[in-house]
Amino acid sequence: MYAHFVFSWPEGASNVHVGHGTLEGPKMTLWTDVRIAGRWSGTVLAEFGRAWVTEHLAKFSG
Fold it and tell me: Is residue 18 exposed (0-12), middle (13-18) or buried (19+ Cβ within 10 Å)?
């Protein structure tokens, strides 16, 4: 299975919502309480998303 994670970070929030799906299609919420640090921006969210996915998928390798 190919993983599609969608990250949503409302401006001013300290938590990211992580879902499964696509940006423009249907999504299934997975977690709503994933902490994020840094100033709200697309760059910060992209870096966070890459690190989060790498760490999350590493749990299943081995």
Answer: buried
What are 15's strand-pairing partners? 35
**Which amino acid appears at position 41 of this protein?**
S
Is 16:7 a contact under the CB 8 Å cutoff?
Answer: yes
29-57: pLDDT as tens digits: 999 999 999 999 999 999 999 999 999 98
DSSP state of 9: -
Q: Structural domain of residue 54, as residue ranges? A: 5-58
Higher pLDDT, 61 or 39: 39
**Single-letter code of the amino acid located at 29:** T
Instruction: Give me the number of domains the chain comprises.
Output: 1
CB 51 within 8 A of CB 18: no
